[in-house]
Amino acid sequence: MKISNDSQTLTAQQLLEHWQGHRSLTRRVIEAFPDDKLFTHSVGGMRPFAELALEMLGMTTPTMEGVVTRTWPTYSPAEKPDSKQGLLAMWDKATVELNALWPQIPEGRFQEDDKAFGMWAGKVHWILLYIIDNEIHHRGQGYVYLRSLGIEPPHFWER
User: The pTM is what?
Assistant: First the structure.
């Protein structure tokens, strides 16, 4: 049996839906935090969850801009809001931007080599998977924080 090297495992739309499923779950983790703990609570010297969410936000739209235009902005964390509602508004804005930029990804771009933010070299599909993996990693920290506060986190499989 010959296996084709050009077979497609996921369509671009399926990858977007997968990422958006993770983003939806991360949003519910943000929502689960008490207002007074989102920006301050940490465990073991790790950053508070709001800072982790801001890192994710600082990567979402800039990554998509780099993928679409082949020009990478300098990475910088998103501006810090002063409330959970402000953070959620930023999250929702990035979701709209992701949905708007995704269809603009040039044909064949997922297989091209690039260097995201001047730091991460690899195929574009690898860069996107790295961004998704980073979100999952930080969301796991959020789960630890919520449990340490006595709060049951959202089920991870409900994406």
Answer: 0.90
- Residue 32 covered by a domain: yes
Tell me the residue range of the domain where 139 lies. Answer: 13-148
Whether 91 contacts 30, CB under 8 Å: yes
3-state secondary structure the chain: CCCCCCCCCCCHHHHHHHHHHHHHHHHHHHHHCCCCCCCCCCCCCCCCHHHHHHHHHHHHHHHHHHHHHCCCCCCCCCCCCCCHHHHHHHHHHHHHHHHHHHHHCCCCHHHCEEEECCCEEEEHHHHHHHHHHHHHHHHHHHHHHHHHCCCCCCCCCCC
| Arithmetic mean of pLDDT, 145-150 | 97
What is the CATH number for 107? 1.20.120.450
Q: Are 38 and 49 a contacting pair, CB within 8 Å?
A: yes
Does the CA dihedral 108-99-136-65 come out positive or negative? Answer: positive
Q: Exposure string (b/e) for 78-98, b if CB count within 10 Å is 16 or more?
A: beebeebeebeebbeebbeeb
Mean pLDDT for 89-111 is: 96
Percent above pLDDT 90 for the chain? 83
